[in-house]
Amino acid sequence: MRKKWLPFLLAFAFLLPAQTAFAAPRANVTDNRVSFDFPNTATFSATISADSEISSITLEYGNIQQTCGEVVAKAYPDFSAGKTVNVEWTWDMRQSGSLPPGATVWWRWVYADSSGQQYSTETQTATWLDDEHPWQTISSGDLRLHWYGKDKAFAQTMLDAGLEGLRRNKEQAGLSAEDPIDLYVYPNYDDMKDAILYEPSWTGGMAFPEYNIFIMGVSGSDATWDKNTVIHELTHILVGHLTFSCLGDVPTWLNEGLAMYSEGELDSAAQAQLDQAIRSDALLTVRSLNGGFSELPDKANLSYSQSYSIVNFLIKTYGQEKLTELLKALRDAKPIDDALLEIYGFDSDGLEDAWRKSVGAAPRAVSPQATAMPTPTFVPTYVPVAGIPLAVTPTPYAIPTSSFDGSNAPTNGEDNTGFILLTVALVCVCLLFLLILGVVILTFVVRSQKAGKNG
Question: Is 368 inside a domain boundary?
Fold first, then answer.
């Protein structure tokens, strides 16, 4: 349970809490803090004083991540005017979408007094993480591992797996870390799921390349699986960073194939399923693997195994340097067919033909009509990297501009009140129209009968 990824959106900028250009010699803010109700809310509060009555207060806030430009969210909390005011505002993740554990939250208060002077506090930061567990940290090189509920020997084993993943990705695919990467290991899947809102039930691990963070739950029974999960998710971080783009997209077969390739050879069951699909000519087309994989377990497993085989073919036949070139071309917003043609001399269909020949599969079935390329859909939030992918609609990421008051809290189902009222209104209009039509027809019939009698 670890395998699916968010195609990332070209500019390489970080969301940095830049200081607002306000003079602040008389800024007087105390009890400036944020408190977390993890993973639901972050509440910012402060006591602000000024020489004159405070006329306006704005909270600027956000989180540090890789993005296409600086993003500053603003909230306008309610307060009672005065020279000293207590102010509070809540960022509700149940509305905006969840941050990954370990993300850095930043904020500052901007305010003005009745004399027209405007001030800004220093930017503050805090780590978005629960305080219920005794987190511990060990690190080596570009990898920091955070854990609880297990002994240090376990943590060292997982850290070693991550370091091995970094080595493999650098040597086999030319992928390397540009910044420190944080791994949060939960002692079981349930604890991990409790740390993230709105995740599919099958999630066993998730990667957030834009934050340089990945998280996972420990299986509790398969140490090899756990170590492979570390390597798999780590690969998604590296691929996500190298290919980060506001315009381009990375096919799922390439992303997942690289993650599978970094784990090592396919296990016997996966290889047997792939061999059977080759013999029975039940392989999936490369173009169909550009997007999300099937939610059917057998077809999903074949998608991963086939993606591994395709990436293995490209690296073994043409070398890892060309594969790195392919990833960079995708980062530069080239469509996959154009990138393949430029680097390898064939498009997606040509790749499938060459790969099928290399594994002894039957030639690709040629449709009388050209196969349409699927159009990538921008997904503004994370997509879990683990488990058998299901048809899940991700929660759109938007930073709210007002506190959560409970009136629009998520329910077990969608709020269909507006739709129901509209339906009832349309039904009433239709009934009224039929009634009027009936009266007109009846009137016409009566008049016709009277005219017939008079005639």
Answer: no
Q: 68 in a domain, yes or no?
A: yes
Strands 181-186 and 213-217: parallel
Kindly report, residue by residue over 34-67, the tens digit of the pLDDT. 999 999 999 999 999 988 899 999 999 999 998 8
| Amino acid 424: pLDDT | 60
Which one of 310, 336, 359 terminates a domain? 359
Same domain, 90 and 168: no
Single-letter code of the amino acid located at 339: A
pTM, two decimals, is 0.72
Torsions phi, psi of 111, nearest 5? -145, 160
If one counts the domains in the chain, the total is: 2
Query: Is 240 in a helix, a strand, or coil?
Result: helix
Q: Do both 99 and 171 map to the same domain?
A: no
**CA distances (Å), origin 405, targets 270, 365, 415:** 50, 57, 16
Check residues 155 and 4 and name the one with the higher pLDDT. Answer: 155
256-267 residue pLDDT tens: 999 999 999 999
Answer whether 397's CB lies under 8 Å from 381's CB. yes
Range of the domain at 351: 136-359
With tokens 């079935």, the residue in question is 365
